[in-house]
Amino acid sequence: MASTTRFGTRAVHAGSSPDPHTGAVISPISLSTTFAQKSPAVPIGKYEYSRSSNPNRDEFEQAVASLEGGKYGLAFSSGSATTATILQSLSPGSHIISGADVYGGTHRYFTKVAQSHGLETSFTTDLLTDIPSLVKSTTRLIWVESPSNPTLSITDIKAVAQLAKQYSLFLVVDNTFLSPYLQTPLALGADIVVHSVTKYINGHSDVVMGVAVLNDDDIYQKLVFLQNAIGAVPSAFDSWLAHRGLKTLHLRLRASSENAQKVAEVLASNIKTGKVLHVNYPGLEMHPNRRVVMQQHRDGLGGGMISFRVVGGRRGAEAFCQSTKIFTLAESLGGVESLCELPALMTHAGIHASERIKSGVHDDLVRLSVGIEDGDDLVVDVQQALDRATGQVNGVN
Ligand SMILES: Cc1ncc(COP(=O)(O)O)c(C=O)c1O
């Protein structure tokens, strides 16, 4: 699919062409683990063994690469497996600089797994200011999540990419929270973009998968070797499902983003009513990095994720999550359905309380993944849950 076509056209057509044998418009799911050979080590077609590559994974990888504006896509069995494979490509003794409020599992991987392989990570809440003082002779990589999970802080990717170039470091950006529809980090100077495909790219909460997209031939050769050697690869069926999900990414992201804007505005209006302490949402004018959002996100859209602090401490936050009627209390995000969760007790429970609070993940912080239901219904649901939760805490009902 020509890179001159617009996003929606590429989402539907990239990596998809009619099956040459049957004309099927949608690719068949190629479940075979092995592929026949004409003579030893000379396969009939492109494929030999499904861990190394298979038609459905190939098509999905081509599609995501096209949407991220990259040359290569590499799919993995989860977002975490993507992180693990990239870190495995660094030699022991390497040093990484990471944003502090990254996904809890990424933080866990840096501190509890990568460390035992001889990798050291420094965390900072202000990458732009701190990179020069954190860089050492062993530093190889900068890891950015923007917006971050769960505080929705925004990093100026272009500015970090300039620093990365200055110090000859690789820049990896986790783009899970926005998807390539709202942000394309390679165009801003990143070397590798990663996703938990489990979230917006698949978009239907029925696949666990990850992907990395990049342009550099040497890094690609290293990672494609590790993709096969480590073998943390997705099944043909999951690749097929994720590719199907990807075809509506632009429609889902726009709808989620518009709904989230409405919900965030209602939450912000409850600061005055004394029910909400603070709202983190990149689409609000009050977001501290709104200027960067306007440059970095498509049409300045805020995305589908919001976090906010409810009055009443942890009890207030728990009561909110148990009072919603449309938002389901569950981990994960990026599906068509709306979800809510308490990071301090759920997704980020593994991070020590003092470090968690330093990054703004307070006990009363609620995270919302706003889906594509009717936005007005979501607003009504959030307001009634807020009224109930704060009423309960204050002993009103
Ligand atoms: C921003 C981010 N990156 C990476 C991951 C890990 O992805 P997975 O759950 O597919 O392993 C998650 C999971 O929640 C995430 O939110």
TrEMBL record:
GO molecular function: cystathionine gamma-lyase activity; pyridoxal phosphate binding
SUPFAM superfamilies according to UniProt: PLP-dependent transferases (SSF53383)
This protein's pathway: Amino-acid biosynthesis; L-cysteine biosynthesis; L-cysteine from L-homocysteine and L-serine: step 2/2
Enzyme class of the recorded protein, top EC level: lyase
N6-(pyridoxal phosphate)lysine: modified positions: K199
Family: Belongs to the trans-sulfuration enzymes family.
Official protein name in the record: cystathionine gamma-lyase
Upper classification of the organism: Eukaryota, Fungi, Dikarya, Ascomycota, Saccharomycotina
